[in-house]
Write a structure and sequence with these properties.
Blueprint lengths: L3 H32 L5 H31 L4 H5 L3 H29 L2 H28 L9 H27 L6 H34 L7 H4 L2 H14 L1 H9 L20 E5 L5 E2 L22 E3 L6 E3 L2 E4 L9 E5 L3
Parallel strand pairs: 1-5
Antiparallel strand pairs: 1-6, 2-5, 3-4
Helix pairs in contact: 1-2, 1-9, 2-4, 2-9, 4-5, 4-6, 4-9, 5-6, 6-7, 7-9, 7-10
């Protein structure tokens, strides 16, 4: 059996990381509810669900460490049996990660228009859910640290499936968003920012899941894997919240390039809308058309009173529109009248 340091040291570090990320998550959720009050009701309720389950998860982790280090301090039971809070750890984690993964799969379906890809992501996500439930049951049967290697198969099923989902999400979002580039500098810069955020958050969760399963297999009689396991659920929620709260920054990027105001999320009633600008004068005609993109890069945008041109992927997909500007003038410096036409 491993020493006390190798049993409870990594578990305590994982609990610390979980609690720190919980604090970061609280700030992100507070910013979200203060800044995006017009988001769809179901999205806001989903965030509340994540907050409740994450609070339960952190409570279980703290109680899990309190039991052996305080209640059972210096007793044989502390190093012999798994803490009771560990039983719930896998199933509570997937109660967070699986809905987030399915939520992102739905976004990918709307962005890429690929139902098959979304179904594959959901399939592996459900497998990870099954593996976590299996692991929870196995922990309740095994109960003792000495038999920890018997947890390997359900742990592998859970964590490998989770890592596969994270890698698929990262690759698919990166490819789908890369295809939405238009050649317009402001829009492409915003898309590149979204891609960077997608890669960073997706790879972090995949890396933690891979390190968890590797340590589980390579060091079966220690608890080093729990240093990666306990913060896992918080990484999913913080990744989702960071993408939600980053919308204002992306919109600023677009607004600095004279693009119309944009956001990423909306309810089902809100569609992507464009802008038609027509400038006329008494004599002479010059016309030009430029292509740009207004963005609902993730899920949609607030209600607008503009007319859309071009194509869109639905209220929650990536939208690429054309902004048409027609100039009628007798000289470049003599524009007598300008009128902006807005539609509903």
């Amino acid at each position: 059996m491993a020493s006390v340091e190798l049993l409870f040291g990594p578990m305590l570090i994982g609990t610390y990381a979980n609690a720190i990320l919980y604090g970061i998550m609280l700030v992100q959720i507070f910013v979200y509810f203060q800044s995006y009050k017009n988001d769809a009701t179901w999205i806001r309720r989903f965030i509340m669900y994540l907050l409740i389950v994450e609070t339960i998860n952190t409570g279980f982790d703290i109680a899990m460490m309190y039991q052996p280090l305080v209640l059972e301090y210096a007793t044989p039971a502390a190093t012999k049996f798994f803490p009771l809070g560990l039983y719930a750890e896998p199933v509570v984690t997937v109660a967070i990660s699986t809905p987030v993964q399915i939520f992102i799969a739905w976004r990918i379906r709307l962005i890429s228009q690929s139902t098959l890809l979304a179904l594959i992501i959901c399939f592996f996500s459900i497998i990870s859910l099954g593996g976590a439930v299996w692991l929870t049951h196995t922990i309740s049967v095994v109960r003792v640290f000495a038999r920890k290697p018997e947890l390997h198969w359900p742990a592998v099923m859970w964590l490998v499936a989770t890592a596969v989902v994270d890698v698929l999400i990262t690759i698919s979002l990166t490819v789908s968003l890369s295809r939405r580039k238009t050649g317009y500098t402001g829009t492409d810069n915003a898309i590149r920012k979204i891609i960077r955020l997608t890669v960073q958050t997706g790879l972090i969760t995949a890396l933690f899941a891979i390190l968890d399963v590797v340590c589980f297999l390579v060091l079966p009689h220690s608890a080093i894997n729990f240093a990666w396991d306990f913060p896992l659920s918080k990484l999913y929620t913080n990744a989702l919240m960071s993408s939600l709260n980053a919308r204002a920054g992306w919109n600023t990027t677009l607004s600095n390039t004279n693009m119309p105001p944009n956001a990423l999320f909306s309810d089902d009633r809100e569609l992507m809308r464009g802008t038609q600008v027509q400038t006329s004068s008494q004599t002479g005609t010059t016309s030009r058309t430029r292509q740009s993109a207004t963005a609902s890069y993730e899920l949609g945008l607030p209600r607008s009173n503009r007319v859309a041109f071009g194509k869109h992927d639905g209220p929650y997909g990536v939208t690429i529109t054309k902004e048409v500007e027609t100039l009628r003038e007798d000289s470049v410096t003599d524009i007598r009248k300008a009128q902006v036409y807005n539609g509903v």
